[in-house]
C-alpha cells in the first residue's frame, strides 16, 4: 500500500526534490570556490610580465638598459 496523496508518487517526488536541491548546492559551492579562487597570483602575474619583457628584448624592441630597468622594477613590486 502506497498511502494517500500523489497517487503513490509521494516518495519519488520527495527524492527528486532532494536530488535537485543537492545538485544545486554542489553547483553553488563549486561556483563559490571558483569565485573566491579567481584572479592571478602575484607570482604568476610577475612571471607573465617577465615573459613579455624577455620577448620584447629578444625582438629588439628594447635595449639592454631598458630591459634591466624594467626587470628590476617588476621584481621589486609586490
Helix content: over 70%
Tell me the count of domains: 2
Secondary-structure-derived class: mainly alpha
Number of separate helices: 3
Strand % is under 5%
| Overall geometry | rod-shaped
Contiguous low-pLDDT stretches (5 residues minimum) are: none
Largest sheet: none
Cα gyration radius (Å)? 28 Å
Distance between the termini: 70 Å
| Helix-strand pattern | HHH
Number of strands: 0
Q: Mean of the pLDDT scores?
A: 83
Question: What can you see in these coordinates?
Answer:
This protein has 78 residues and is an all-alpha fold. The protein has two domains: 6-36; 42-76. It has three helices and no strands. It has helices at 10-36, 42-59, 64-76.
Could you provide a short overview of the structure?
The protein is mainly alpha-helical.
Which structural traits does this protein have?
78 residues, mainly alpha, 74% helix, rod-shaped
How are the elements arranged and paired?
Elements: H1 10-36, H2 42-59, H3 64-76
Helix pairs in contact: 2-3
Amino acid at each position: 500500500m502506497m498511502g494517500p496523496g500523489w497517487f503513490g508518487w509521494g516518495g519519488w517526488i520527495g527524492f527528486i526534490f532532494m536530488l535537485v536541491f543537492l545538485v544545486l548546492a554542489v553547483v553553488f559551492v563549486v561556483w563559490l570556490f571558483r569565485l573566491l579562487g579567481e584572479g592571478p597570483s602575484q607570482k604568476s602575474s610577475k612571471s607573465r610580465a617577465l615573459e613579455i619583457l624577455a620577448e620584447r628584448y629578444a625582438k629588439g624592441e628594447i635595449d639592454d638598459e631598458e630591459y634591466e630597468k624594467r626587470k628590476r622594477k617588476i621584481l621589486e613590486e609586490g
